[in-house]
Write a structure and sequence with these properties.
about 220 residues; mainly alpha; two-stranded antiparallel ribbon; 6 helices; 5 strands; about 5% strand
Length: about 220
């Protein structure tokens, strides 16, 4: 395996694990926000104050934005790994990329009725401002959060499933490599008399416990 392939695989595993961690964080705050919202609607003495609901929304929005970013990184590194292996990259999720790009440049656009709206582009140079938002359905990015979807309406479950698939694939490769390394080690010891003797001594020690070095209570060795 080349160094570039190894690094690409490392980043696939890194970002896949990051997606799973971030998805768990997003689920937790989503559940908290929904519960607090229901309790607020009851208008009881113990119901949470309005400022807590607003705080929950900010937290959830940021956590889910980070989940989209991690998912985008996973997709890019998965494509790099496949190229390193001479494979055709998976078809890119254009919608995910567009939403991620729109969020990255959110500070450049206008806002109307809870939506991000691309400003007019009177010149060709100005077309780049809000370009990702223009590419979304309706030319807007809804900043609201759905019960099962992230900003922009992306399915959280789909993102998590893709990350889990990547983690399992990489871990499967690593497990197979470890088995092969172990098998190669055993094959090498068959032709190494000194190593075979060491292994036989270890096996003999475990067959005869009285030969195994005992430890004193303070952790030092004792052979009496």
């Amino acid at each position: 395996m080349s160094e570039s392939e190894g690094q690409a695989r490392f980043f696939v595993q890194t970002w896949a694990e990051a997606v799973l961690r971030q998805a768990a964080r997003a689920r937790t705050i989503r559940h908290t926000a929904e519960q607090n919202s229901r309790d607020y609607d009851l208008m009881e003495d113990w119901s949470p104050p309005l400022y807590l609901l607003v705080e929950n929304f900010r937290t959830q929005w940021a956590e889910e934005h980070q989940l989209l970013w991690a998912a985008h990184q996973l997709e890019r590194w998965d494509a790099r790994l496949r190229r390193e292996r001479g494979q055709e990259p998976r078809p890119q999720d254009a919608f995910l990329k567009t939403v991620r790009d729109a969020l990255e440049h959110l500070d450049e656009v206008d806002f109307e009725d809870g939506q991000a709206v691309a400003p007019p582009a009177p010149t060709k140079r100005a077309e780049r401002i809000g370009r990702a938002v223009r590419d979304l359905p309706g030319g807007v990015l809804d900043l609201g959060l759905g019960p099962e979807s992230l900003v922009g309406g992306i399915s959280a479950q789909a993102i998590e499933a893709r990350a889990l698939e990547a983690v399992r694939a990489v871990e499967g490769e690593l497990a197979a490599e470890q088995l092969e390394e172990h098998a190669a080690y055993l094959r090498a010891t068959e032709n190494d008399p000194a190593m075979r003797q060491v292994l036989e001594d270890i096996a003999d020690a475990y067959d005869h416990p009285e030969l195994v070095t005992r430890l004193d209570p303070d952790g030092t060795g004792s052979t009496d």
